[in-house]
Recover the amino acids of this structure.
């Protein structure tokens, strides 16, 4: 089963740059022509710049899903008014630099990575890609077909299928039901002209924030950003919307699918970014993930890779996932574990150990300039506070056992369950009934 990262946005939104040395300047922000620019001195010769476009799936209707991701791909793959695709890439290859873009649920980004000494050569290419992209018709059809092929290649994946069913079931009628990459139908219908128009209307000062992770002097950064922003319209005011997901009851939806085994996915509530419960629930779900793995795989042998994690985006939610030949036994184990934790609580030792492991994992994942830039971007867009990326240790250290247990009890309640596999193997009422099914006997794990 494809590995699913436990924290998704949580890792991006919680990763903290390593503590700056005495010689390394502190991170700061500044406003340049109405746009926030966040700067993290890197202590190395790599320059990473991310221009972040807020909104993500909120920026387009469902029948245009994938348009932002396609537009960001076109910025480099369709050339600019000054360079066709080959000329653009040749100039980047000459100095081993690259620029790339893509869009996710909550924001898109267009990124630059180069050696500091090559920035003056790469920066004009980056600015042109953002401000005067060509959207060449022939190249656009090529990248559109590539996008369609990539979507089709994942359609046969059971992991992608169950994820899509879960999101469309839980978030029906909301932006979070949309796929940032789009669908075969939505991408097929997109035209070069409307995609170009979309980019021109979305790439505005009101929607962007710029992240710089590099050892560059402030005046140089300001001058380069002014050069970029001189070609960017102001745009209408924009405010991203956050939406709680709180299921009113346990629900269950099954689809027959000829999988080698059966796939189960559950979606529960979660705290929104910027709220007091966010860090505590992140820790709680991390501990729960370990317990869930132990119970489902090690004690009951029901699945090779059971997982649980927290998705901390503008619509936050907790997820449980399993592949199993015995789905009814799984739900008894999963619900029994949740009930036990809510009754007995996590322990002080579990919280202490999780804080250490949680922070160690965060620092380990944040070794590159790009990871630091992504952390600051996520914290700024989701939490409205990029500084959280460098103060997360303080937030984690402050979480008490009472807060940990209260957060788990508050959000891990009703669950939206979906199932794909053999319908004869599953009993829907076991997933929706008020009473927790009886725990099956333990058996040898895989």
């Amino acid at each position: 089963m494809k590995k699913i990262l436990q924290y998704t946005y949580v890792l991006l939104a919680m990763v903290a740059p390593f503590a700056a040395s005495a010689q390394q300047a502190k991170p700061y922000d500044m406003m340049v022509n109405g746009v926030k620019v966040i700067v993290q001195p890197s202590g190395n010769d790599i320059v990473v710049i991310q221009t972040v476009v807020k909104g993500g799936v909120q920026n387009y209707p469902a029948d245009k899903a994938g348009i932002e991701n396609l537009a960001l791909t076109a910025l480099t793959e369709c050339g600019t008014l000054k360079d066709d695709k080959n000329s653009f890439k040749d100039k980047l290859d000459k100095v081993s630099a690259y620029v790339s873009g893509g869009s996710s649920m909550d924001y898109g980004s267009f990124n630059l990575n180069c050696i500091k000494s090559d920035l003056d050569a790469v920066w004009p290419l980056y600015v042109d890609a953002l401000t005067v992209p060509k959207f060449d018709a022939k190249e656009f059809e090529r990248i559109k077909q590539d996008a369609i092929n990539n979507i089709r290649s994942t359609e046969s994946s059971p992991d992608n299928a169950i994820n899509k069913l879960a999101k469309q079931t839980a978030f029906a009628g909301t932006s979070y039901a949309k796929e940032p990459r789009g669908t075969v139908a939505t991408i097929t219908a997109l035209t070069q002209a409307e995609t170009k128009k979309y980019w021109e209307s979305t790439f505005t000062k009101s929607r962007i924030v710029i992240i710089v992770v590099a050892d560059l002097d402030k005046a140089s950064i300001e001058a380069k950003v002014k050069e970029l922003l001189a070609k960017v319209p102001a745009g209408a005011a924009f405010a991203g919307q956050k939406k709680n997901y709180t299921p009113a009851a346990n629900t269950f939806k099954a689809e027959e699918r000829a999988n080698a085994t059966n796939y189960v996915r559950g979606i529960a509530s979660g705290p929104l970014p910027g709220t007091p419960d966010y860090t505590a629930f992140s820790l709680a779900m991390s501990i729960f993930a370990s317990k869930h793995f132990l119970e489902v795989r090690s004690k009951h042998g029901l699945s090779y890779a059971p997982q649980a994690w927290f998705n901390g985006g503008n619509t936050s939610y907790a997820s449980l996932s399993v592949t199993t030949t015995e789905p009814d036994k799984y739900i008894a184990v999963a619900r029994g574990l949740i009930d036990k934790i809510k009754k007995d609580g996590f322990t002080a030792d579990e919280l202490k150990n999780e804080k250490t492991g949680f922070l160690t994992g965060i620092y380990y994942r944040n070794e590159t300039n790009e990871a630091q830039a992504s952390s600051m971007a996520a914290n700024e867009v989701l939490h409205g506070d990029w500084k959280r990326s460098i103060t997360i240790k303080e937030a984690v250290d402050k979480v008490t056992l009472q807060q940990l247990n209260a957060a788990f009890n508050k959000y891990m309640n009703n669950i939206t369950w979906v199932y794909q596999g053999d319908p004869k193997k599953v009993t829907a009422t076991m997933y929706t009934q008020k009473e927790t099914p009886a725990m099956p006997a333990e058996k040898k794990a895989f």
